[in-house]
Sequence to fold (389 residues):
Amino acid sequence: MFSRVLPILVTGAFLTGCATDPGPKPDDQLASAQSALQSAANAGGEDTEPSMIAAAREKIVTAESLITEERYPEARRLLEQAEVDARLAEARAETQKVRDELGDVMASIDSLRRNLENQN
Amino acid sequence: MKRHYFGTVPVITVAALLSACASTPPENPALNETQAAYDEAMENPEIARNGLSHLRDAETALDRAETLHAEGGDEEALGHQLYLANRHLDLAREKAVRAGLQEELSEAERQRDDLRIRIGERRAQEAELQARMLREQMDRLQAEQTDRGMVMTLGDVLFDIDEAELKPAGERTVRKLSDFMQEYPSYRVRVEGYTDSTGEAAYNQELSLSRAQAVENELLSDGIEPGRVETQGFGEEYPKATNTTAAGRQENRRVEIVISDRDGNIGSR
Fold:
């Protein structure tokens, strides 16, 4: 009897392995996404790209609950997206800093020019 | 499509192998758009220079998307790779924008520093001019540098003998001082009267004060505000010369006008 059941069990195990294997738990992706989000927030991304930051945060929250349900592939995708969202928000915040600084310098050029003209 | 970058050869090979056994999959507009966007970014020298690592990431995602498309498989996985590819393209463009702004910023900073230097030079020139004009004024007043500051001396000959009346020559000299005070409104003066030691000390003190006040009145009649003039009579004190000779006594009979610094502070005895 055992010799009849064993191949079926093996085959069954093999098949379920193919169909439902959720792959590895996306711990690294979770860590990367969280660190990218933190870094974006530190750079002031919240001010420059509030909706992008909010989307990234929501994706991470959703991914975390997907992980508890062992729906790893979906979680991994959301985390990968959250990471690039956060990185883009950070990049835009950094650009905004340069833009602001440029605005300050232009303003000081204007006032220096007026100063110079008034001296004449 | 003329992509010949990084790792495209294996993709093309895989795609060729796959298409050999499968029929060509239908067009995917989202994939085509991302491919076009990638090509455009690669052809932009600013993006290619500043966003190279992001372009590589975009290409990796795009390669995966193309493979998935060629396999005719998972739409969701394909969409995911396109999402990543587009974000990496955004990142590459962002780097180029920032690099451009940074160049503008450096140029603006250079301009600003240049203006600051020019303004500094202009201020130094102006200060030098002011100082020279002031020196010329002091020369006109024949003021001399002393411990108390610049001091202008009105000699005995500018007053009537034993009187506090200024002679016309004395008035003309005081006029030069009022001209100076009108031109430099922050300056103040203290008018100090002195006599020789002949006669009563009390009388001399009074005469010295009267002469100082005569000068003050002259300044006020020229329109100088009272608050800018002080007077003091020192009588026989602080002789400049000996009181034993006529020439010495004449030198001691005098009015000294101490000119303040530019903030109105007057050095005292």
About this structure: Chain B has a mean pLDDT of 90.
